[in-house]
Amino acid sequence: MIDVDVMQRIKVAGIFLLQIYKVATGTMLSLFVPQSCGEKVCSLTENLENNEIYHKTVLYWNMFSMFTFFTYYLVELRREEWAIQYLDIDNNKSDNSLKEIIIKEPILDKKMDKLNKYYYNLLRFNCGVYFINVMLTIKMLKDGYHSMSTVSCFVSFVLLVLMKLYNSYVVAYQSVKNDKMMSAYMCEFVSYNVLDADYVKENKPIELEEIKTEIKEEEEEILPNEGIEIEPKFPEVKLDS
Fold it and tell me: What φ, ψ does residue 37 adopt, rounded to 5°?
């Protein structure tokens, strides 16, 4: 049987490899977003060899943004590897129970805090670099606009990266704020197991009326000709406030 830690490492590696593509296309926007070269779309080679000063400036900043991304990824993977090696997931315990347990292991507690803060600060720096990257690219694409494919590709590439940054920021912020180790890769599916509170609140009065109607109809069938009025006794149904 394959060890749980090995399965977790394989899952993290697989997700990381899938994310490399969207990070590369989402940071190197001056290369991968369609641009105009006269009446045709520029090729990757033409985008790379474009010697216009502003285009070169944006290209170099794209490269710097991709470098900061991969630096942040290295820290994220190192953090994930440490968590897999020293921590585990127990669905029978609450998500915040680690704080009470790891405090008994000062070395691990200190290391976890260090990794979380380093990860959080590097992520914030990376977000700032990427924001500048997007702004510079918008100006470049305005000058080299070709068609709607320019806009659609730019928006698609940027959204993919922003989704990754948002998810990572939630993980980093919650980990630092609540002194815990949230995984940036291990996501679990949830199962709905109760009725929605708003649905119950809206439908209970209807159910009460249906119960009253059923009881009245049953009593009318039992005493059809006696002309005796019997006050129906209804079961107590508590309404949620």
Answer: -125, 80
Tokens 């127990």 found at: 90
What pLDDT tens digit does each residue of the chain (241 aa) get?
667 777 777 877 777 787 888 899 999 999 999 888 888 888 889 888 888 999 999 999 999 999 999 999 899 989 988 988 888 877 777 777 888 888 888 898 899 999 999 999 999 999 999 999 999 999 888 888 888 888 999 999 999 999 999 999 999 999 998 888 888 877 766 666 666 677 667 766 656 566 666 667 766 666 555 555 555 555 555 555 4
- Does residue 197 sit in helix, strand or coil? helix
Task: Match 């641009």 to its residue by tokens.
Answer: 35
Place of tokens 């830690």: 5
What's the number of CA atoms in the CB half-sphere (13 Å) around residue 231?
0
CA torsion 134-136-140-141 (nearest 10°) is: 20
The residues, ordered by sequence, that sit 6+ positions from 87 with a Cβ below 8 Å of its Cβ are 98, 181
117 near 176, Cβ under 8 Å?
yes
DSSP assignment letter at 92: T
Nearest to 117 by CA among 65, 66, 70, 179: 179
Q: What is this structure's pTM?
A: 0.72
Contact 28, 66 (CB under 8 A): yes
Phi, psi (deg, nearest 5) at residue 40: -125, 170
